[in-house]
Amino acid sequence: MPSQLVALCFDANDPHLLARFWAGVLGWKIVDDPHDGVTLLPNDDTGFRIRFLPTQEEKTGPNQTHFDLTSTSVEDQQATVARALELGGRHIDVGQLPEERHVVLADPEGNEFCVIEPDNKFLADCGFIGALSSDGTQRVGYFWSEALGWPLVWDQDEETAIRSPHGGPKITWGGPPVAEKTGKNRLHFDLAPPAGGDQEAEADRLVSLGATRLATGQGEAGQVAMADPDGNEFCLLAGPPAG
């Protein structure tokens, strides 16, 4: 059986500030995190938590992954933008074209996200978090499909997307050109072995799919620090989180 995606983790200079921002945008509940961070619990079919972990490193470039938030009408899109701005977000320019109708914003620490126009067909059946939109190769889309056991829902022109059979956001990879990786990603996934599964056996399976093990000290105690075929870091936990 495949790994479980249990959390999307943000490195944050101020985890509590960032957690309050995203709790306000998403309407999710803030709970204590056992590893000196802050966690948000979903109230929909998202299927994974969001964790904010302390770091001293400053953000230096665009993130490899960002949220695409959906909207049901132009008014709903405007309301999401207004709420994000009130909570401490800001408009940013990432080269979007005037005719593009999505709105590009950043959270208080500069993490990019988009509020998508209401008639976007690709995200039509998704919830508020429509997608985790990622910079990455076709190969890495195939890797994550096998790693998580999520089917491909898009595979065209080297662009790929997967989605849990239970619903929730799509995870997409835009294909070439892929930006050169210059340092540790600001966002990463926390995985857990399948129920009753062995952490080392699952790590070996992920390696067989194209992952690599990273040097010790990259993750928290009890975790296996790894990278996918594009070099994007992720952590394999010893088991599912409590609670």
Query: Regarding CATH, which class of the domain at 59-173?
Result: Alpha Beta
CATH topology of the domain at 59-173: 2,3-Dihydroxybiphenyl 1,2-Dioxygenase, domain 1
Query: What are the segments in which pLDDT stays under 50 over at least 5 consecutive residues?
Result: none
Decide which structural class fits the backbone: alpha+beta
As an assembly, this protein is: single chain
Largest sheet: 8 strands, mixed
Radius of gyration of CA atoms, rounded to a whole number: 17 Å
The overall average pLDDT, rounded, is 93
N to C succession of SSEs = EHEEEEHEEEEHEEEEHEEE
Distance N to C terminus:
22 Å
Strand elements, count: 16
Q: Any idea what the CATH superfamily of the domain at 59-173 is called?
A: 2,3-Dihydroxybiphenyl 1,2-Dioxygenase, domain 1
* Overall body shape: globular
Strand order of the largest sheet: 2-3-4-1-13-16-15-14
CATH architecture of the domain at 59-173: Roll
Helix content: 10-25%
Please, how many helices? 4
Describe this structure in words.
- InterPro entries: Glyas_Bleomycin-R_OHBP_Dase (IPR029068), Glyoxalase_6 (IPR041581), VOC_core (IPR037523).
- This is VOC family protein.
- It comes from Sphaerisporangium corydalis.
- It holds the Pfam family Glyoxalase_6.
- Residues 4-118, 125-239 form the VOC domain.
- This protein has 243 residues and is α+β, with helices and mostly antiparallel strands.
- It has a domain at 59-173: 2,3-Dihydroxybiphenyl 1,2-Dioxygenase, domain 1 (Roll).
- The chain is 20% helix and 30% strand.
- The chain has four helices and 16 strands.
- It has helices at residues 15-26, 74-87, 138-148, 199-209, and strands spanning 4-12, 29-32, 38-41, 49-54, 65-69, 90-91, 103-106, 112-115, 129-134, 152-156, 159-163, 170-173, 187-192, 212-213, 224-227, 233-236.
- The strands form two sheets. Strands 2-3-4-1-13-16-15-14 form an eight-stranded mixed sheet. Strands 6-7-8-5-9-12-11-10 form an eight-stranded mixed sheet, covered by helices on one side.
- A hairpin with a 7-residue loop joins strand 3 (38-41) and strand 4.
- Helix 1 packs antiparallel against helix 2 (74-87).
- It is globular.
- It starts with a strand and ends in a 7-residue tail after the last strand.
- The mean pLDDT is 93.
